[in-house]
Here is the input.
Amino acid sequence: MKILMSDITGAMRSSIEGYAFSVVDSMEFSLGRDLTTEEQDKVFHIVDDAITRITNNPSP
Here is the structure.
């Protein structure tokens, strides 16, 4: 069975929320504090935008 680019990009898109949570968790650990709701929302939007841009124009 061959893995297609669409398999990878689809999995990336479906993992956005979990990845954003991991980024928030990492930032909270590094900063030594909880992020505010606004900060968490900003992280989610940045992660979502980055993954969406990459998966809409993947390199071969």
